[in-house]
C-alpha cells in the first residue's frame, strides 16, 4: 500500500509540521483557498473536523485541488465515519477518544491515525494494542504540559499531538516536551478571517505557526 504521507522522511503525521491546523469548514467553497493558504504558510497537515455537513465535501475538494496538502479527518467517532472519510480522500484520521471498535476500524483503514486520550490508563491501553502515537485531548483541561511531562518518564514510547486550549502563547511549552511531536490548534484560522475570506491573513498566521519551536528554541 502506498503511504498516504508525502515521504519516508515524514513517516508520521506528528513530524510534518509543528502545528496541525484544526479546521471547521462551514462553506465548501472556502475549503480549497483555505488549504492553499495554510500550505503556503508552511502547514501541510490539515485536520478537517466532521462538525459540519460540508466536512466530507471539503476533504474531497482539498484532496483533488491541493495535492501538497495532507488533509485528514478529525472528530472521527464511529467505524462508519472511518469508511466515509477514507473514501473522501482523507490521508489520516483523528479521534477525540477511542473504543475497541473504532480502533479496529481505524487500523483496518490503512491510514495513519491518532486516537484521543486524556488519562494514563488510556495511554497504557493503547500501548498494549501497539499504538504509540496519540492525540492528547482536551490538552489544557486534562492537565496540560505538567501532565504530559509526568507521562514521559514511565511511558517514553508514547508520542502525542496535544489539542485543546493551545495557542501561540503556550504552544512552545508543549513543543519542548520530549513526548510531543506537534500540537493541534485553530488560532491560524480565526473565524473572522475565514468569514472575510482573508486568506492572506490565514497564510501569515500559518507562517508564524510553522516557525514555532519548543521553549529554548528546540524542535525535535
TrEMBL record:
<comment type="subunit">
    <text>Homotrimer.</text>
</comment>
<dbReference type="InterPro" id="IPR000887">
    <property type="entry name" value="Aldlse_KDPG_KHG"/>
</dbReference>
<dbReference type="InterPro" id="IPR031337">
    <property type="entry name" value="KDPG/KHG_AS_1"/>
</dbReference>
<keyword id="KW-0704">Schiff base</keyword>
<dbReference type="GO" id="GO:0008675">
    <property type="term" value="F:2-dehydro-3-deoxy-phosphogluconate aldolase activity"/>
</dbReference>
<protein>
    <recommendedName>
        <fullName>2-dehydro-3-deoxy-phosphogluconate aldolase</fullName>
        <ecNumber>4.1.2.14</ecNumber>
    </recommendedName>
</protein>
<comment type="similarity">
    <text>Belongs to the KHG/KDPG aldolase family.</text>
</comment>
<dbReference type="Pfam" id="PF01081">
    <property type="entry name" value="Aldolase"/>
</dbReference>
<dbReference type="GO" id="GO:0008700">
    <property type="term" value="F:(R,S)-4-hydroxy-2-oxoglutarate aldolase activity"/>
</dbReference>
<dbReference type="InterPro" id="IPR031338">
    <property type="entry name" value="KDPG/KHG_AS_2"/>
</dbReference>
<keyword id="KW-0456">Lyase</keyword>
<comment type="pathway">
    <text>Carbohydrate acid metabolism; 2-dehydro-3-deoxy-D-gluconate degradation; D-glyceraldehyde 3-phosphate and pyruvate from 2-dehydro-3-deoxy-D-gluconate: step 2/2.</text>
</comment>
<keyword id="KW-0119">Carbohydrate metabolism</keyword>
<dbReference type="InterPro" id="IPR013785">
    <property type="entry name" value="Aldolase_TIM"/>
</dbReference>
Amino acid at each position: 500500500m502506498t503511504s498516504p504521507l508525502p515521504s519516508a522522511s515524514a513517516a508520521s503525521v506528528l513530524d510534518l509540521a509543528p502545528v496541525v491546523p484544526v479546521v471547521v469548514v462551514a462553506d465548501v467553497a472556502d475549503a480549497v483557498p483555505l488549504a492553499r493558504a495554510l500550505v503556503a504558510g508552511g502547514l501541510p497537515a490539515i485536520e478537517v473536523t466532521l462538525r459540519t455537513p460540508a466536512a466530507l465535501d471539503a476533504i474531497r475538494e482539498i484532496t483533488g485541488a491541493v495535492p501538497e496538502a495532507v488533509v485528514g479527518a478529525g472528530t472521527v467517532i464511529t467505524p462508519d465515519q472511518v469508511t466515509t472519510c477514507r473514501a473522501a480522500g482523507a490521508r489520516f484520521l483523528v479521534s477525540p477518544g477511542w473504543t475497541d471498535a473504532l480502533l479496529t476500524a481505524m487500523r483496518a483503514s490503512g491510514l495513519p491515525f491518532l486516537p484521543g486520550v486524556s488519562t494514563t490508563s488510556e495511554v497504557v491501553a493503547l500501548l498494549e494494542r501497539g499504538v504509540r502515537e496519540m492525540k492528547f485531548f482536551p490538552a489544557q483541561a486534562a492537565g496540560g504540559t505538567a501532565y504530559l511531562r509526568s507521562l514521559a518518564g514511565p511511558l517514553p514510547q508514547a508520542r502525542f499531538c496535544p489539542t485543546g486550549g493551545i495557542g501561540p502563547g503556550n504552544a512552545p511549552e508543549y513543543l519542548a516536551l520530549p513526548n510531543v511531536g506537534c500540537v493541534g490548534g485553530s488560532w491560524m484560522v480565526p473565524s473572522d478571517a475565514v468569514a472575510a475570506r482573508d486568506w492572506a491573513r490565514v497564510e501569515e498566521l500559518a507562517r508564524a505557526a510553522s516557525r514555532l519551536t519548543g521553549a529554548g528554541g528546540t524542535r525535535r
